[in-house]
């Protein structure tokens, strides 16, 4: 249901976000429209001058001075039109770019507020389509479409008024008979374009998501020799995107021929009927020439009307999708019960915690109870899918736990300001995500300013300093997307340094040293233990060696704590933990052989 709402198939009604920007920039639009009207008024003078010249030449009453004067007037009009045209282009097109800029900032700021659940339920490609294609379509609607709509209406009214009052009422009425065909056809096609454009945007989002996913997982594709299979799958997705685009193109292709056909029909009528009444002397040749020029001026409004309907149809479809996303509310937020707490010390108490992921039928955590005092180290071990990372998500409040189940320093987690809670936690994630930036900035990501000495200190504690200074640019080395230029072990150690530099009261390492050898692991854990003597540390691991020196160890299985104690007490129980130790020791012995 949420995916459908994001795509705009189902959206709560809300005031358009565009109203805010249209109100903010109404002065810009006003100046642009005034400039546009002035240009149109100046354009209306050209047929009158050419008509006057034509009559003067026909009657042989035009003197050389009159000719030069009128030609000079035409040149001056051309210069004025060009100058003022720059004004309306700047204020209307420039404003559409400002609105696009503001909407893109709104989009990014809103995305940053949404909860982890939202990102688990929505694809990256669809979100990227909002930030690119949808915003481009909205910009075209508030820029070129607004311009064309206003200009088409204003110019059409002024031209027809000029034709009626200056030339001939009868000839004008005959000339505009075919024009309603364009309006009717455009309205019909516009509704269809709106629906097809929405399908086109969704097809593009699906294709973008497939490309992003394939590039991210290219090592898996190559390892399983699935390049050809993925190319075939992409070809089908790309074909669907092409077909949806062509459905829009076919309709769009009808707009211009329709406008040109009707305009051509009007011109044919005028050439026939207008020529006839000119021969009869009801209008002068100059009036006839001017009338044809006025009629040709109507070609642009008729074409613009078609373009305008298309752009508005596309933009409104994108606006529905975009506003639906902006209507998404975060699940995690500070409510009225939040306490004004400046900092936390690090004592954690969990009481009978149950948790089930949204949409899941099975509990991920079942009756979890434990206490970690300030300064203690808790080791968590368990099979894959036992609930280790889910417990981390609870402690980071990526999902809301039930009230009265998790307490930090005696405060219910739900009563703590989110900012204070997350500032108190240093987190080393399992996937070791790094940004495409310098090593120094990645390490200093969680602090307000880059302190070279502090960065180097935590890098040494994470045993990655020597690796960093071996690079030609050292800490200024740009590590590429997701840290692609670093090895798995180096990425893990940079992630550890990033958490250490915060000096957090609580630190969580989620399988954070799995890619380093046991000797390096011992050094890193030794540095962490020394640095964090009076601070709380939670270590999640698969290797027994990573957690065996913890003050407390819990063994998770199917979301429940099945064993807890110290390394020695758990070994004495000869249960699941004991079996894990024996199995890992056997694996080491086999590796030596």
UniProtKB/TrEMBL annotation:
Pfam families: ABC_membrane, ABC_tran. One of its GO terms (cellular component) is plasma membrane. Residues 350-583 form the ABC transporter domain. It is found in: Cell membrane. It comes from the Bacteria. Keywords: ATP-binding, Cell membrane, Membrane, Nucleotide-binding, Transmembrane, Transmembrane helix, Transport. The keyword Transport applies. It is a multi-pass membrane protein. Its main location: membrane. SMART domains: AAA. Residues 30-314 form the ABC transmembrane type-1 domain. GO terms for molecular function: ABC-type oligopeptide transporter activity; ATP binding; ATP hydrolysis activity. The chain crosses the membrane at residues 29-48, 68-88, 137-161, 167-190, 251-279, 291-312. The keyword Transmembrane applies. This is ABC transporter ATP-binding protein. It comes from Vallitalea pronyensis.
């Amino acid at each position: 249901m949420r995916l459908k709402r994001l795509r705009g198939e189902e959206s709560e009604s809300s005031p358009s976000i565009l109203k805010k920007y249209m109100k903010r920039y109404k002065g810009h639009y006003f100046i642009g429209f005034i400039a546009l009207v002035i240009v149109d008024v100046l354009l209306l003078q050209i047929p009158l001058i050419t008509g006057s010249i034509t009559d003067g030449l026909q009657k042989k009453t035009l003197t050389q001075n009159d000719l030069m004067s009128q030609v000079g007037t035409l040149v001056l009009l051309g210069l004025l039109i060009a100058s003022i045209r720059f004004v309306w282009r700047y204020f209307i097109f420039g404003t559409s770019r400002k609105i696009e800029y503001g909407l893109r900032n709104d989009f990014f700021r809103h995305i940053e507020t949404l909860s982890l659940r939202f990102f688990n339920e929505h694809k990256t490609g669809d979100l990227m389509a909002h930030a690119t294609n949808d915003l481009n379509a909205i910009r075209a609607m508030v820029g070129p479409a607004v311009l064309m709509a206003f200009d088409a209406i204003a110019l059409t009214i002024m031209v027809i008024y000029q034709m009626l009052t200056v030339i001939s009422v009868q000839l004008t009425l005959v000339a505009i008979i075919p024009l309603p065909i364009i309006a009717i056809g455009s309205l019909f096609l516009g509704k269809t374009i709106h629906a097809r454009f929405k399908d086109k945007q969704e097809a593009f989002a699906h294709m973008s998501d497939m490309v992003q996913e394939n590039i991210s997982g290219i090592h898996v594709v190559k390892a399983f020799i699935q390049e050809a299979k993925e190319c075939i799958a992409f070809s089908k997705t790309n074909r669907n995107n092409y077909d949806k685009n062509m459905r829009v193109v076919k309709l769009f292709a009808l707009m211009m021929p329709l406008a040109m056909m009707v305009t051509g029909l009007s011109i044919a009528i005028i050439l026939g009927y207008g020529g006839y009444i000119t021969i009869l002397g009801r209008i002068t040749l100059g009036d006839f020439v001017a009338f044809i020029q006025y009629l040709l001026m109507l070609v642009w409004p008729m074409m613009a009307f078609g373009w305008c309907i298309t752009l508005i149809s596309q933009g409104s479809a994108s606006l529905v999708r975009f506003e639906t996303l902006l209507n998404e509310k975060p699940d995690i937020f500070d409510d009225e019960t939040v306490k004004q707490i400046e900092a936390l010390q690090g004592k954690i108490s969990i009481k009978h915690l149950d948790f089930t992921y949204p949409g899941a039928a099975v509990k991920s955590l079942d009756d979890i109870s434990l206490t970690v005092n300030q300064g203690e180290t808790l080791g968590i071990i368990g099979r894959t899918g036992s609930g280790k990372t889910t417990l981390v998500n609870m402690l980071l409040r990526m999902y809301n736990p039930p009230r009265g189940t998790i307490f930090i320093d005696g405060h219910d987690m739900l009563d703590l300001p989110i900012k204070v809670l997350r500032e108190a936690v240093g987190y080393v994630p399992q996937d070791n995500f790094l940004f495409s930036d310098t090593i120094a900035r990645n390490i200093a990501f969680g602090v307000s300013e880059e302190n070279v000495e502090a960065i180097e200190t935590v890098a040494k504690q994470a045993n990655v300093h020597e690796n960093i200074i071996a690079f030609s640019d050292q800490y200024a080395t740009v590590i590429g997307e997701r840290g692609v230029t670093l090895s798995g072990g180096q990425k893990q150690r940079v992630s550890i340094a990033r958490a250490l530099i915060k000096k957090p009261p609580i630190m969580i390492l989620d399988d954070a040293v799995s890619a380093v050898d046991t000797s390096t692991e011992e050094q890193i854990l030794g540095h962490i233990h020394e640095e964090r003597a009076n601070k709380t540390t939670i270590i999640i691991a698969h290797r027994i060696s990573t957690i065996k020196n913890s003050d407390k160890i819990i063994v998770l299985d199917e979301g429940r704590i099945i064993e807890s104690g110290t390394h020695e007490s758990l070994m004495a129980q000869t249960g699941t933990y004991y079996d894990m130790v024996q199995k890992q020791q056997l694996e080491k012995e086999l590796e030596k052989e």
